[in-house]
Amino acid sequence: MLTDRISEALGGVDRIESFGKAAIVGLDGEIEHGGALIHTPFFGNVFRELTEGTSIIVFSDDRLPAGEPLTVPLWHKTAAATRSHYQTCQIRIPDAPRPDEIVVIAAGASGPARTPGSGTAPPTRSSAWPIWTTTWRP
Question: How far is Cα 83 from Cα 112, in angstroms, rounded to an integer?
Fold first, then answer.
C-alpha cells in the first residue's frame, strides 16, 4: 500500500508529521471519479489510521494529460491548523495518466515546511516529501 511506502521512506510512522492526497484523472475521465477513489474509507480513512493521524486529509484533484504537474497540499496529521506544516509539493509523472487512467497520490512529510508561513517560527529541520502513486484503469 502507498502508506507503507511513505512510512518506510520516512523511517517509520512516528516520523510522519504531515500528509496529503491527490488524484489526476486522464482526459477521458471525470474529476469526480478521482475524488471517488481518494475520498473513500478504503483510501482516506486507512491512510489516516495507518499514519496515526486525526486530521482530515487535505487533497487536490484535476483532469490532466500525461506529464502535466499537479500541486499536492500537505498539512499536519493531527493538528490541521498548524501553520508551520502547511506545505505543497508538485508532482509530475511523464507518462501518466493515459486518457483512461487515474493516478492516485499519497504524500507525507517528516517535518514542517521549509519556509513556514507568516506568524510561525522557522523550522528546526527540513522536511522530506516522499510521494507515492499508483495508476488505476477502469
Answer: 9
Question: In this structure, is residue 108 part of a structural domain?
Answer: yes
Tell me the pTM: 0.85
Closest CA to 102 of 39, 49, 55: 39
pLDDT, tens digit only, all 138 positions of the chain? 788 888 888 889 999 999 999 999 999 999 999 999 999 988 999 999 999 999 999 999 999 999 999 999 999 999 999 988 999 989 999 999 999 999 999 999 998 887 655 555 544 444 555 566 666 666
Residue 47 sits in which domain range?
A: 2-116+126-136
C-alpha cell at 66: 500525461
Residue 82 lies in a domain: yes
Q: Name the burial class of residue 93, with classes exposed (0-12), middle (13-18) and buried (19+) by CB atoms within 10 angstroms of its CB.
A: middle
